[in-house]
Design goal:
Helix content is about 50%, strand content about 20%. The chain is an alpha+beta fold. The protein has two domains: about 120 residues, Winged helix-like DNA-binding domain superfamily/Winged helix DNA-binding domain (Arc Repressor Mutant, subunit A, Orthogonal Bundle), CATH 1.10.10.10; about 160 residues, Aminopeptidase (3-Layer(aba) Sandwich), CATH 3.40.630. The chain is elongated. The two termini are about 50 Å apart.
Length: about 300
C-alpha cells in the first residue's frame, strides 16, 4: 500500500508540472485551474445550474458561487430565470465562448508539443494506460471490450501477464513461468490453422484476457491458459472466451473438449461449470513448488 501511495504522489508531482498548473494563472489565461475546469463544465453541459456544477467538481458551494459571479462580472456567463436562485441555468456568452475556445486551443497546443515526439504505438499505449488508471481510481468498469484472434507479440504478453498474476495471487513462480513459455511457444511453432486458435480480449487497447484451443489428439480439443485481468473481471470476458472455444471446437469437428485447472482457481471453475464442463479426474501435484490439486474437466461436443 505505501509503495502505491508513494508512486501516486510522485506521479501527481510530475503531472502537475507536465500540464502547467503550478503557476498563478493556468496557461497564462488569467484563470486558476479550478476556474478553467468550471468554465469547461459550463461550456460542455446543457444549461447547467450552480448546485450541479458544485457537485460535479466537488467544490464548496460558496466557492463555486464566487467563481460564477466572477465569470458574470467579466461578461463570460449569463444566468437564466428560475424561482430558485440555486437552479438558475448558466450559459456562456459570446465573450465566454471566445475565452473557452482560446483556452481549448492553448491546452491542445501544450499537449501536442509534449507528446509530439511519441510514436503512434507509444501514443496508443499511453491512451490505454490512462484509461486503466482512470478505471482503477474511479472504481468503475472499463467501457466494454472486444475480442480478436492472436497477432504478433501476443504470446509473450500472455505468458508474461499470467506469470506475474499467478505469482502475486498464488506464489507460483518460475515453474509456472516455464510452463507458460512452453505452451505459448509450442502453440506458435505447431499452430494448425482451422484446428487451433487463440483469442485476445482487449479493453481500451489493452489486453484484458486470453484463451487457447489446441489439438489434444484422438478427436479432443484442449482449452488452455484462460485468464482475465483483475481490472477487467465482472464484464463477462471469461465466459465469452470459453464460449468461443466451444463454438470453434465444434466447428472444427472435435468430439470433446477438455482442460486442466486447479481447485484454488474458483472463478475459472465457475465459468467452466456454467459452460457445461464437468470434472472427470483430480490429482495432487508439486509442479509449482507447493502441493496443489489439479483437476481435469471435459465436455462432449457431439451431444
Amino acid at each position: 500500500m505505501d509503495s502505491t501511495i508513494q508512486a501516486l504522489r510522485a506521479f501527481n508531482r510530475f503531472h502537475t508540472r507536465f500540464i502547467g498548473v503550478l503557476g498563478a494563472d493556468y496557461l497564462d489565461s488569467t484563470m486558476s485551474l479550478t476556474e478553467a475546469r468550471l468554465l469547461y463544465e459550463i461550456a460542455t453541459r446543457e444549461a447547467p445550474v450552480a448546485v450541479d456544477l458544485q457537485q460535479i467538481l466537488g467544490l464548496d458551494a460558496g466557492y463555486a458561487s464566487r467563481i460564477v459571479r466572477r465569470f458574470e462580472q467579466r461578461g463570460w456567463v449569463a444566468r437564466g430565470r428560475s424561482d430558485d436562485a440555486r437552479r438558475r441555468p448558466i450559459e456562456l456568452t459570446d465573450a465566454g465562448q471566445a475565452v473557452f475556445a482560446d483556452l481549448q486551443q492553448r491546452q491542445h497546443d501544450l499537449f501536442k508539443d509534449r507528446i509530439g515526439s511519441l510514436a503512434a504505438a507509444d501514443r496508443r499505449a499511453l491512451e490505454a494506460a490512462l484509461d486503466t488508471a482512470r478505471s482503477l481510481l474511479s472504481r468503475t468498469e472499463p467501457a466494454g471490450y472486444t475480442v480478436r484472434t492472436f497477432d504478433t507479440g501476443d504470446m509473450g504478453l500472455v505468458a508474461a501477464r499470467q506469470a506475474i498474476l499467478y505469482r502475486e495471487s498464488h506464489g507460483w513462480g518460475a515453474p509456472m513461468e516455464v510452463l507458460l513459455g512452453e505452451v505459448t511457444s509450442r502453440f506458435l511453432r505447431d499452430f494448425q490453422p482451422g484446428r487451433e486458435q487463440c483469442w485476445i480480449a482487449e479493453s481500451a487497447g489493452t489486453m484484458a484476457g486470453s484463451v487457447f484451443v489446441v489439438d489434444a489428439g484422438d478427436g479432443a480439443a484442449q482449452l488452455r491458459l484462460l485468464y482475465v485481468e483483475p481490472w477487467a473481471r465482472g464484464m463477462g470476458i471469461g465466459g465469452d472466451l470459453v464460449a468461443r472455444c466451444l463454438t470453434f471446437a465444434r466447428g472444427a469437428g472435435y468430439t470433446s473438449l477438455r482442460l486442466w485447472t486447479h481447485t484454488v482457481l474458483e472463478s475459472a471453475r465457475r465459468i467452466y461449470a456454467n459452460a457445461g464442463l464437468r470434472i472427470v479426474s483430480t490429482e495432487v501435484h508439486h509442479e509449482f513448488g507447493t502441493p496443489e490439486q489439479g483437476e481435469t474437466w471435459e465436455i462432449a461436443l457431439n451431444a
